[in-house]
Design a protein that fits this description.
Length: 323
């Protein structure tokens, strides 16, 4: 327990270093500190060692790419592309995402939450610092590819961990797009995404929901509704919080005359919603036995916490009421 707390402290220190520094040397140190502190948390059980090793190798390759960019410091464009590729690799965005989905099977829900949220902060912030000075078509290509891969990868996906993995890739594309419009929009989007994902992961963890969608028909109706309210929010279904954060990005793209990108983002959001709604219909229609939600909860207070976090997804309704 003490060691876990120590590693979490070092992860926090690494993130603070990245937040507070504009020096690429200190940013690199912060990235490595978060990586090496996260790896021991991945290897808690023997069956998780393989996932920890894959994560280590992937992050090491990204770090090597960062180091390899130093000989090209006198070539501004070469450094820019090397750094961008290295950070895209570290964050697990397409086309350098092969390692990201592969490690999902061996991680538990707590580790997945860290991977989807905390471990993305460093590389995404570093990308923002890089793109402050220069925006180009390659970066736009990464955005388009991330959203396409995340949306298409989730189609016909039966394992919840893999489904959330592809959802994370899709939201990486949305987060990258929010960077175009400044620091505060990026931070706001990432906070809202992390909030919705935390609510969803709490439901999965405390209700001990199955790993496969094939077993969803054994869920109670209340379990299914609570789970899918958060999943639909993550997909951008109005009037949930996820709709507000995606609408914010699409509106900014439209006002900046990115008309094609706006239409593309809407189409990808609708595609994601299509298979989320299909899953919702599948689980609710196959529900025969409706059990009480409290039976699966270890503590009734946990139910209240999850319910409160889920209800906060309706906050955008208040926003639109006062427009």
């Amino acid at each position: 327990m003490f060691l876990q707390g120590l590693f979490l402290f070092f992860i926090l220190m690494g993130i603070i270093m990245i937040f507070s520094s504009k020096s690429w040397l200190m940013i690199w140190v912060g990235l490595e500190l978060t990586m090496f502190s996260f790896i021991p948390l991945l290897g808690e059980k023997s069956q998780q060692v393989e996932g920890a090793m894959k994560y280590f190798l992937a992050q090491t390759m990204g770090s090597l790419m960062l180091i390899m960019s130093t000989p090209f410091l006198f070539m501004e464009s070469a450094v820019f592309y090397f750094l961008m590729l290295a950070l895209i690799f570290k964050v697990g965005a397409p086309p350098l995402h092969f390692w990201y989905i592969d490690i999902m099977y061996s991680l538990n829900w707590k580790q997945l939450w860290f991977l989807f949220t905390i471990q993305k902060i460093g590389p995404l912030l570093s990308l923002f610092y890089l793109l402050e000075s220069k925006m180009n078509n390659l970066f736009m290509g990464f955005i388009i590819l991330s959203m396409f891969t995340g949306s298409m990868g989730g189609l016909n996906q039966k394992y919840i961990k893999i489904l959330l993995g592809y959802s994370s890739i899709s939201h990486t594309g949305w987060a990258l797009a929010s960077m175009i419009f400044g620091y505060y929009m990026f931070i706001l989007y990432f906070i809202m995404y992390s909030f919705i994902l935390t609510s969803l992961m709490l439901i999965i963890y405390y209700l001990n929901l199955p790993k496969s969608i094939f077993h969803m028909e054994w869920w109670s109706l209340k379990d299914s509704l609570l789970f899918f309210m958060n999943l639909l929010s993550l997909g951008g279904m109005p009037p949930f919080l996820g709709f507000f954060m995606k609408w914010m990005v699409i509106e900014s793209l439209y006002k900046a005359d990115f008309y094609f990108m706006s239409m593309y983002f809407i189409f990808m959001a609708l595609l994601t919603m299509f298979y989320y709604i299909n899953l919702f219909i599948y689980t609710t229609m196959n529900n025969i036995i409706i059990s009480k939600l409290f039976d699966k909860m270890k503590n009734k207070m946990l139910f209240k916490e999850v319910l409160i976090m889920t209800s906060l997804n309706f906050l955008p309704l208040l926003f639109f009421m006062f427009l």
